[in-house]
Amino acid sequence: MSSSLGGFWNELEPTLLIVVGFVLFVIPEPATSTLGVGLMLLGAAWWFYEWGR
């Protein structure tokens, strides 16, 4: 795997986590909304971690 493709995946994975978390958040079920918020927070933390590297 080339380094440019690896950098692309490092940016895509947290973004997908945030998007999936948002979709789960808007589903009107308390359990999925809670899971969605957790995934969005994890994705945001991962995104900021990768941004600083």
Question: What does this molecule look like?
Answer:
- The chain crosses the membrane at residues 16-49.
- Keywords: Membrane, Transmembrane, Transmembrane helix.
- This protein has 53 residues and is mainly alpha-helical.
- The chain has one domain.
- It has two helices and no strands.
- The protein has helices at 3-26, 30-52.
- The chain is elongated, with a radius of gyration of 13 Å.
- The chain starts with a helix and ends with a helix.
Secondary structure elements and pairings:
Elements: H1 3-26, H2 30-52
Helix pairs in contact: 1-2
Which radius of gyration do the C-alpha atoms yield? 13 Å
Mean pLDDT: 86
Total domains, how many?
A: 1
Helices and strands: which structural class? mainly alpha
Helix fraction by DSSP (H/I, runs of at least 4) = over 70%
Q: Tell me the number of helical segments per DSSP (H or I, 4 or more residues long).
A: 2
Taken as a percent bin, the fraction of beta residues is: under 5%
Largest β sheet strand count, sense and barrel closure? none
**In terms of per-residue confidence, which ranges show pLDDT below 50 for 5 or more consecutive residues?**
none
What order do the SSEs take from the amino end to the carboxyl end, as H and E?
Answer: HH
For the secondary structure, the number of strands is: 0
Sum up the overall morphology in one term.
elongated
Terminal CA distance reads 19 Å
